[in-house]
Design goal:
With about 170 residues, the chain is an alpha+beta fold. About 60% of the residues lie in helices and about 15% in strands. It has one domain. Strands 1-2-3-4 form a 4-stranded antiparallel β-sheet. Helix 4 runs antiparallel to helix 5. This protein specifically catalyzes the removal of signal peptides from prolipoproteins.
């Protein structure tokens, strides 16, 4: 496969996924080396660095199970990653929003699955709150997945709008 072949499709966006994994894992290694479990480092009146372990999925879904969820979420992450790489290969270079979203989601999935395989849990540490309200702690991989999903939704909305405009429908 030549450079021109790579440029013809979205496989170059695997590099975005790799960048997300590097940023995610570097931040988590810093947390593991410097922040005790459940310790709060206040950054802003609404934001702390708080190291917590997530044995489940988003918002600690299934975290109270016997451990089977580790392998279940690992399998899902590998399946989604394979699917994203396939879609990247099939998506033309001009479909930038889709490719950015695939790269972000891919990097986030691999970042979190790396934790599951290495530790048996995902390292979360970004904690936003206001008075008694607390958003569940998350990490760089989670941000990448969320941003990638938002880009996919935006892309779908804009594509639908463009399709309507091209057909002359208001």
């Amino acid at each position: 496969m030549s450079f021109k072949d790579l440029k013809a499709n979205g496989l170059w966006f695997i590099a975005l996924g790799v960048l997300v994994v590097i940023l995610d894992q570097a931040s988590k290694l810093w947390i593991l080396a410097n922040v005790p479990l459940y310790y709060d480092i206040n950054i802003l009146p609404i934001f702390d660095i708080t190291y917590v372990r997530n044995y489940g999925a988003a918002f600690s879904f299934l975290s109270n199970q016997d451990g089977w969820q580790r392998w279940f979420f690992t399998a899902i992450a590998f399946g989604i990653s394979a699917l994203l790489i396939y879609w990247m290969a099939k998506t033309p270079w001009r479909e930038q929003r889709q490719l950015w979203s695939y790269g972000l989601i891919l990097g986030g999935a691999i970042g979190n699955v790396t934790d599951r395989l290495a530790y048996g849990y995902v390292v979360d540490f970004l904690h936003f709150y206001y008075e008694n309200w607390h958003f569940p702690a998350f990490n760089v991989a989670d941000m990448a997945i969320s941003c990638g999903a938002a880009l996919l939704i935006l892309d779908a909305i804009l594509e639908a709008k463009n399709e309507k405009l091209s057909k002359g429908i208001n």
